Structures are given as structure tokens and as C-alpha cells.
Amino acid sequence: MDGSQFEEELLSQFEEELLSQFEEELLSHWFLRENQRIVQRDERWTREYMPAFRAYYEKNKSANVPQSHPVLGRLVNAIRICDTAIPPQFEEELFSLGFDVRNQHTVQREERWTREYMPAFHAYYEENENVNVPRTHPVLGTLVNAIRVGRTEIPVQFQESLYEMGLFLCTSNVAKHVAMRLGRIVESIDADADAQRVVNQVARIHARMLKRRVGLKGIALKRAGLRKVPFGIRSIGNGVDRCAADLRRMESTDDLRVKM
Questions:
Q1: Distance (Å, rounded) from C-alpha 168 to C-alpha 201?
Q2: What's the CA gap between 229 and 171, in Å, rounded?
Q3: Rounded CA gap, 124 and 144, in Å?
Q4: Which of 56, 74, 96 is the last residue of a domain?
Q5: Model pLDDT, residue 234
Q6: What letter would DSSP give residue 220?
Q7: How many domains does the chain have?
Q8: pLDDT under 70 in the chain at which residues?
Q9: pLDDT of residue 27
Q10: CA–CA separation, 191 vs 53, rounded Å?
């Protein structure tokens, strides 16, 4: 061992001994600081936050204050985005006051989907065997258009149900609809079993819609919501050729980068 290596080993031993000597004291100071922080937090919850929650509940029968609340707004938002936590000793009471840790915009949206949108989708499906409502539908028209252009999303818990009822996420390009359904780019219809499954569903629903158009004209077509049929008023057969053609068109127009 040369001189420099010997010096390095001595220095390393000295550092280890020094750290060991002061480790207990350093940890003690850290513990005291952390403990004091918790004490201050709990005091504020006892003195300020919980009385404000109780007062709000007495007036509104809920502890879900808006973000504009002068005392609790920022706190509640921090809890919901996981920037802070409810002290354990206050959890049971706060939850008994109806506090919901979920984002309230999400809660209200899902409530509306449960109470209004999904019943309307089911009612339309019962009559039409698909849920591709026209833009004029009083409940669903604007919503479905917003979904298709990416201004809103289907809540996860309702996606599978709507897909089973035949909702088209794109009404002009079969390949784009398939890509949006699968959440990924489809490179070839031939070697992609999942893509073929979705294409087959598109073809079945499209064929049913064309069949329902037979014998309808003018105002009757409009009332049936079939004046404009997704993917056009010509048969697309089993859908495979149409999907392949749309894939080529997407590639040539640089439209393959579907926003998922």
C-alpha cells in the first residue's frame, strides 16, 4: 500500500468514527424538528381548520368547500392533489361530515354521466342498436361531438359499455376510429387481431344503420338520425378494405399521429 492509499484509508476511518459519534445527536435534532412541525400542524388543525369545517357543515350539510373558501379552500385542494394529508386523528370526523378527497369537478361530471348521459345512451341504444346519435340529439348530441373532437373524455368506468353499444369515436375514417378505440397506432389490419375485432364491429353497426335507412326519405330520415350515416351511405363490406384504404390515406396525409 503506498502513502496516498494509506492516507485515504485513515481519512475514511476518521470520517466513519466522526459520523458515528454525532449520528445519535443529529438524529435526535431531526426528530425534535420533525416532531415540532407535526405539533404545529395539529394545533392549526385543532384551532383553525376543524372549526371551519364544522361551521361549513352546519350551514351546507357537507364539508366539501369550494376552492374560494378563505380558510379551507387551499387546504382542501392540497389534500385532493396529494400535496398534504389529513392528520389521522381528524380523519374519522372529517369523513363523517361528508368530506370527499376526490376532485369535485370529476365527481360532478361522473354524477351527470350516471344520472343523465348513460340512461340517455341506453334508451337510444334500445331503439337504434347503436349510440351514434345525431348532433341534434337534445341530451347527447353536443356531448358526443365533444368526445369525437377531443374536447372531453368518456369516464373510464363507462368506456367499455359505450364501446359495446357501438359508439364511433371517428365517423369518417375507420382506421382512425380503430386507433382511438385501441389507444395506439394501427400499422396493418392484416396482422392485428384487436384491430380486426373493432373493424368487424364497425362493419356490423354500419350495415344495421344502412338497413334502417331503407324506405325512409326526407323528414323520416332526419327523425331517425340517419340523414348522415357515419362512414357514408355505401356498404363497407366487412370493413377490412375500407380500413386498409384509410390507413394508406392517413399515412399519405401525415394524419397517422392520432391524438390518444
A1: 10
A2: 8
A3: 13
A4: 96
A5: 93
A6: H
A7: 2
A8: 1-35, 253-260
A9: 57
A10: 58
